[in-house]
Amino acid sequence: MKIPLHLAKDKEVQSIGITPVPEAEQKAKTLAQIEEYRQLARSLMVMLETCTKCGACAKQCHSYLGTGDFNNIPAARADLFRKIYKRYFTITGRLLARFSGAEDFDAETLEKWVTYFYQCNECRRCAVFCPFGIDTAEITIAARHILTQIGVVPRFMIGIANNMAKTGNNMGIPKPAILDCCEFMEDEMREETGLEIKIPVDKPNSDVLYVPSSADFFTNVDTMIGVAKMFYYLGVNWTISSSILEAANFGLLFDLNTMKEHNQRLRRAAAEVGASLVVQGECGHGWRAAKMYTEGANGPAPFKLVHVLDYAAENLPKFKLKKQPMRVTLHDPCNYARAGDIIEQPRAIIRACVTEFVEMTPNRERNFCCGGGSGILMDEMMEIRMKLGKKKAEQVKELGHLDYFATPCSICKAQLPLVMNHYGMGDLKMGGVMDLLGKALILE
Asked: A single Pfam family, by name (predicted)?
């Protein structure tokens, strides 16, 4: 079995504070980590013990449907973890391993863990259709965290973590480059509107801290421009912070300690600028990490936290809008629809901004993943990513002609253009929901 992704070398792993474990000690360390996780999250054990392998998840998983690989069935993937749990943490597994579905942890097990837990997009669609509500994403998160603790982690993830530690954003953008990008976007808005619309950086005594995706300063600038126009229209005293120019939090996807560090960075940035409100930008898993774990990981937060789409939807009655003559559909990012309570807000915004809005089938919490979620945007995973995106491409094709494909998540914005091109729809225009609001706003 070939592991499709490039694993980090020992020196690279050490750069994020993890001590790689020698091969001879990996089994003991893995079992110790499972025991630690059992104490941290009893829900994981409940999910491992509850599955009856009924198969309801199989036909609902885009990973299995796209690859046809048995081990990508959510129940089968979870079984890779369950077999080890049974062998070492249950009486029947210790005494009757051969008859209880338990297996020893060995090199083949490790290889399967790396291969298949990094083909799960952690989209949680399986949980929607599971009769017991088993959330395979939580099992994947646990397995990836444990792999990281023994030093088995993709090089791509290490690079992201190091960029976050050095610059506060995934792309490693230093403050001078941030200022240059803001000046460029301000010039663009001035040329378009004739107005002085600013994107303030590290402005003290700000009421609102906006946390964008770092990609909004290079590949998705219309998203950032849409947000700046909105704040200008509302007269908001706002800023971005050069110390956390990143709504994404890749720690959720491979290392819970890294996730906590990024949440701490958010707290410090809000305190530095004096913000009582933090508005999180268009990033699916970043919103899940901020909403679900900011207080759980680091205690009560001294600010209110909202998503930019929620914020914009609440303010819709205040906006003067000119509907754009466009036929638009919406991709529901997994971590919005199944983990973040962002479902109707983007629909309200789109309907207010364009002449025709059409739904994909299925949609909302039943929507299919883009195929790039959970941070598997590595180049070496490209072939698999295209397979994982097959169901999404089929959904879009069924709609016929579209003028715009709204994809309000940074990872989706990186993945879906490649998927659409791969399946013969490379001319489809894509971008965020805030892009549409920025184009529809009538500024005076």
From this structure: Fer4_8
Angle at 176 between CA 173 and CA 177, to 5 degrees: 45
The residues, ordered by sequence, that sit 6+ positions from 435 with a Cβ below 8 Å of its Cβ are 220, 222, 223, 225, 226, 406
Contact in structure between 369 and 334 (CB atoms under 8 Å): yes
Rounded Cα gap, residues 284 and 337, in angstroms: 9
Angstrom distance (rounded) from CA 334 to CA 70: 23
Residue range 330-377, pLDDT digits in tens: 999 999 999 899 999 999 999 999 999 999 999 999 999 999 999 999
Average pLDDT over residues 104-122: 93
Check: CB of residue 280 under 8 Å from CB of residue 430: no
Question: Measured at the alpha carbon of residue 24, what is the angle toward residues 18 and 27, in degrees to the nearest 5?
Answer: 75
DSSP single-letter state for residue 132: T
Domains 168-314 and 320-440 share a fold: yes
pLDDT band at 98 (very low <50, low <70, confident <90, very high): low
Architecture of domain 320-440: 3-Layer(aba) Sandwich (3.40)
Q: What angle do CA 400, 401, 407 make, to 5 degrees?
A: 95
| In the chain, where the domains are located | 19-152, 168-314, 320-440
Q: Which top CATH class is 19-152?
A: mainly alpha
List, for residues 209-264, the tens digit of each pLDDT value.
999 999 999 899 999 999 999 999 999 999 999 999 999 999 999 999 999 999 99
